[in-house]
Amino acid sequence: MAKGTTVRMWHRTVFILIFLVTVGFGAVVFSLVRLQLIDGSSLQMRATEQQLKDTTLTAKRGTIYDCNKKELAKSATVWDVVLEPAFITDENRETIAGGLSKILGISRDEIMTRSRKKTYYDKIAGKVESDVRDAILKFKTENNITNGIRLVENYRRYYPYGSFAATVLGFTGTDSQGLAGVEAEYDSQLTGTAGRLVTAKNAVGTDMNFQYEQEVPAQDGDSLVLTIDEVVQHYVEKYLAEGITNNKVQNRGCAIVMNVKTGAILGMAVKGDFDPNSPFVVADAQQAEAISKITDAAQKKAAQQAALQEQWRNKCISDTYYPGSVFKIVTGSAAMEENLVNENTVFNCPGSLTIDGTTVNDWKRGGFGHLTFAQGICNSSNVVFMQVGQKLGAKLFYKYFGAFGFTGKTGIDLPGESRSLFYTAEQMKPIDLAVASFGQTNKITPIQMITAACAVANGGYLVQPHVVSEILDASGNIVKTASTSPKRQVISNDTSRRMSAILQQDATTGTAKSGYIAGYRVAGKTGTSEKTEIKTSQEYIASYCGFAPADDPQVAMLVFYDEPHGPAGYYGSPVAGPTFLGAMTQILPYLGVEPKYSEEELEKLDGKAPDMVGQTPAQAKNTASKAGLSVKIYGSGEKVISQVPEPGKSVPKNGTVVLFTDQKSVGQTVTVPDLTRLSLSEANQKAVDAGVNISITGAALTGSAAVSTAQDVAAGTKVAPGTVVTVTFSEDNKVR
Amino acid sequence: MTNASAGGNTAVPRRGGNPRKSAGQGHAGKVRKKFRLFSIRAGMDLPFLFLILVLVVIGLIMMFSASYAYASYNFGDSYYFIKRQAVFAVLGVFLMVSISYFDYHHLHKFAIPILMFSFALLVLVRFLPAVAGVHRWITLGPLGQFQPSEIAKFAIVLIFSHLISLNFSRMGTFRYGVLPYLLILGATAALLLVEPHVSATVIVIILGGVMLFIGGVKLRWFGAAFGLAGAAMVYLVSFSGKLSYANTRILGWLDPFSNASKELIDKTWQTRQSLYAIGSGGLLGLGLGQSRQKYLYLPEPQNDFVFAIVCEELGFIGALIIIILFAMLIWRGINISLRAKDKFGMLLGIGLVLQVGLQVILNIAVVTNTIPNTGISLPFFSYGGTSLVLLLAEMGVVLSISRTSSVEKT
Predict the structure, then answer these.
(1) What is the ipTM of this complex?
(2) Cβ neighbours of A370 (radius 10 Å)
(3) How many CB atoms lie within 10 A of CB B181?
(4) What is the pLDDT of residues A61-70, one digit of tens each?
(5) Any CB–CB contact under 8 A between B376 and chain A?
(6) Closest Cα in chain A, distance from residue B320 (Å)
(7) Residue A49, min C-alpha distance to chain B (Å)
């Protein structure tokens, strides 16, 4: 025992020691167990929350291509300007505020205030272009600012062709989210997956200067390959816009071009649409001006909203309408499929039919007398079709109505498809059925109509209309291919073939001949539907639906004008027919459809101007007469130095080739006369008098009482003598 | 052996407690020994020395890791603190070993001067400009800051060991067993309290109390003391705002994650960050140097809250090992003291070792929010050069005691 320590001291020390170890160390170890082992994970989570800085890495939105890989919508790099107040010192605050204010046009005071915020990230300008970025970078270098201003990569959506295919493409919002069209429909695929950059930050908010960084890279969005063909779309839009102007269409128009076998939409247009680069601007100048004149703010806003909604609306799929006589394709096919009628079944057509006390008139007063079924279609007789409807009965009518896809949405891959409005078999009274047979009872969408027409054309198969053919991942691999297999067979191949033949007849000599294109065996049907829901005035929808070639259908087109008020009237044939004609004349050769000319057609077909340059006037005259052409000689030279039309260019049958024999004569011009509202012979005469050649398209080629409705070179234009002016002819405008 | 004990007792009747005289009247061997400045006859306690060196090294490493980011951000030099601390550590270890050769009995002579010196400093610090609103530090120029409370703790331990060992047989009386200590302790505590430095006050009172308890003061006095303390507590809680429930310090202690007020959030920031750090460590820790909380979240991580970073980087296992090392140090230190040659050495050793133990416990208790936040540094770990040197010097005294102690040396 130690000398110094008594037993009591020993005891008391041991007591203290035990107390210290159990109570003291016990308490702190217990606390550590609680904090580290029991509450550890939750505390760690809270710590991590404050320690980690999570920066979103924007994924690049996918590109939208047309079927030939032309870029219709793409994302380009732009920059967000971010202020980092944590790094801004009192010394450089003024400089930064001044410089940024000048570059970005934000007030200096605002930047000063925001630079004092207790944060490390404050976005002061979004999506600036590279010139602004360069200016900022230059400013940073010049003023030796290393921290405090950051440029963060972002993307902006560009539509290089402006309003081209705007309805199909749609547009994106400020956060690059798809708001309409395929941009909205395929938003999740296009968007990709935003990445994350997780870095550790210290309490001030700047990066910790040690290695802690976790990057989940952004996955760029998938790209879309559309079925839309830029060339087809171009013609569709061109002729649709022309039709809108010519026919003073009040409520916009739309057109769809579709591959009859696959359901691929080659072109889809609505006019007037918008520019997806600035979708929130009212595109229609007149409308915009009218809105700007509204003084009441609330009303103005409402009008603005309404105008925007209207221009964004895809009429092709969102509007429901009475298809009118175009629907006779469906009724007729059903009746033929059920063997209730054939081409030669005879109907009596006295001009009207009374069902349950309601009299329905045909478009031709006095009627057609006795007509075969085929003639009934070609003359678009409502009385014939009311009888066809009666033969079918409500049950069968409704069965085929459903089979052709009119009772449900087509399921096209675009947002905003409307449901059709229809009577079921039970709901249909005899008068409803009668009127429904010529398309005035049930309201359907244009996309449903053309899909049904495709089924009639392609051998009876209902296809899936679609605008996206392939989805490609960021590296260009195909992720998904659209299915082109048909949903079901609706009518037999035989019925399809026979109906096509009737429709070809209709487009050659019948009411639909405004869509006739020599050599391309067009099958077509016109429609004029009354907007019976409008009580205050008589408003119509003029439409034309056709496909070609009738013996091996490739492509179908539906044109639709809502409320035409133009000189050509409101009937489908003169209003919508020329658009079909104009667009398909370009589209069919472009798609490689081989023309096959009949004898008659060959006779009226334009020839090619022979090369007469270098010949003497006498020799030239001889050459021309051999080709069935006449010549007109300008100048007094000995040899022909140039000619119009140029060698190899198209010249109408019996046309005149103008020959120039000296330099002086070459500059001469003539004025194009107004060649519309004329008969074929009148137009010819007027053209010859004016010294221009006339090329005929449309109904005039098949003879009879066609009237010119349009010319491709405007009246009053100065042109070289002999220039070919294409004039479109239509049947008289009383045709439904 | 019993003679030496008797020798101690013979000194008791003498008032004033002159160690030389008491030793002079004792055993002849003692007389011979007292003229030796150094007592290198026996070796010092190597386990104790080893534990101290291990703790100093671990402490340096952890202080370096904890201060790394803070030093870098605030001084532009990550090594700012470690460079200084390392110099003091070397100096301190050298001083410790030197002191271990010095016969601790000489300290009898210094007990009263050091106490006076301590009082002088405590009074002086009151008149020096306040640092962070409190009068705790004296700035020593290039040596950094120095807390008089550190001297005060040593002064109390020394004077109590001195007086108790002299008046051991009269410890049962009020006049010799209670009154002088009460006066010394009361004066020191009062001076510390006005700094204000509550934690130092508490440590000094506990230290003094424990020494009196071991020194043989009658238990009823402790009963009275606890009674008085309890009454004071009740008074303070009910009648004064100082310790009332509304006190943000208490509120913050009860709910360190409260977002009730801006003031509260500011007040509990350190505790909150400390808990985040400890929690983040989990069982095995984030790894040495991997703390994230030291990146300006935990204010001044090199000081009182260094243990939070230890917990974060080394985890529960690492923290436990360090606590065990401290426990072993205390156990060994007390063992040495219990077997000391005389009561002075025994009491001195226990006082010094207990001081370390108390600081360790209270520091970790603060860091883990077991008790309300108050400024107590962690021995061997917290940054502070003079404090480390003084601590190591005190450990040198314990080693000196170990040379005369009969504890088994390994």
Answers:
(1) 0.85
(2) 11
(3) 23
(4) 999 999 999 9
(5) no
(6) 7
(7) 10
